[in-house]
Design goal:
Helices cover 56% and strands 4% of the residues. It is mainly alpha-helical. One of its GO terms (molecular function) is glutathione transferase activity.
Length: 221
């Protein structure tokens, strides 16, 4: 979405996570967490979604996607990153993706050998082999998501976008979370401002091209 909003040209290399194409020496050699996305620009590797979009906006300044209150905007990017492993991933895996991304013993051994991030290693160990997420894991994830989206709901009161009337990196960081979580059954019915915000971003070309083109409906994944 950021690349499209800024009118930048790029070459895409798609990895099929269900085929475990990210679990390879080559990809871990680029991204030590084995996660997507990864950006390589001018020979420099950038990982983590929110760091990538911040870098793109700093490096390619026009049109700017930065809010006047940059401190508050960056707080939203940091929050989106902070809830990823403890909130979003457990919910998404428990509700939908764990069976689809189940690793064979060989794949699990390969992943354990490559993965040095202990937080991610601990997370994936919870659904390795015949294991499944416990109710307490899902409850903790729901609590984190509820708290975060309640904050977003309050912030969007009287605002078109998270930072006001300007579409910024804050929106780009939270739109994929909304899309994926909604596709996994998380209910936004109690958040009317978020629902209105979602209806607005669904009309943007960058959303249609950057999200829907690749995955028309996450519920069908």
């Amino acid at each position: 979405m950021t690349l499209i909003e800024k009118g930048l040209a790029w070459e895409s290399h798609h990895l099929d996570l269900k085929k475990k194409e990210n679990i390879s020496d080559e990809y871990f050699g680029i991204n030590p967490n084995g996660l997507v996305p990864t950006l390589i620009d001018n020979g420099v590797v950038h990982i983590e979604s929110n760091d990538i979009i911040d870098y793109l906006d700093e490096t390619y300044s026009e049109p700017s996607l930065r809010a006047k209150n940059n401190v508050e905007m960056m707080e939203w990017l940091h929050l989106a990153a902070a809830i990823h492993v403890p909130g979003c991933k457990p919910y998404v895996y428990a509700m939908k993706m764990a069976p689809k991304l189940k690793k064979t013993a060989k794949e699990q051994a390969k992943y354990d050998d490559l993965q040095k991030n202990q937080e991610l290693k601990a997370f994936h160990s919870k659904h390795a082999g015949d294991k499944s997420f416990e109710t307490s894991d899902l409850d903790k994830a729901k609590a984190i998501l509820d708290t975060s989206f309640f904050k977003l709901e309050q912030t969007l009161e009287g605002r078109t976008w998270i930072m006001g009337h300007q579409y910024t990196l804050a929106d780009i960081s939270w739109i994929p979370l909304h899309f994926v979580l909604k596709g996994c059954g998380y209910s936004f019915e109690k958040f009317p401002n978020i629902t209105r915000w979602a209806e607005t971003f669904c009309e943007k070309d960058s959303y249609k091209e950057g999200v829907l083109k690749w995955c028309p409906d996450f519920a069908e994944v």
